[in-house]
Write a structure and sequence with these properties.
The chain has 119 residues and is mainly α. It is 21% helix and 0% strand.
Length: 119
Amino acid sequence: MDYCVKKLFLLLLLSFGLIGTAPANILDNNILKMKILNNCEECNLQGVDLSNKYLRVVNLSGANLRDANLSGSDFRLAKFWNADLSGADLSGADLRNANLRGTILCNTESSSDTDDPRC
């Protein structure tokens, strides 16, 4: 689906109230935004289950992904600039060529240990 069509679709859903802005729906709205636009900068996705998903080239810069389940997902070429992945499960996730500049990786589950001085 073309990026402009995706953006228009999201705007229509928001304008018709099919997805709201109430606090209880923030996580669901952010997941929908990420899926439609392949972009969820500064989103709150804390504790979300994104296991075994195809999320190549997604932009999650500045997102809160604390305690998220990202295991087995394809994040090749994804942007995680300054995102918080503290406590996230990254086991089996494909992060080849992903941009992790400034990403907080404290207490993550993965196949390799990280020595992040912010932890």
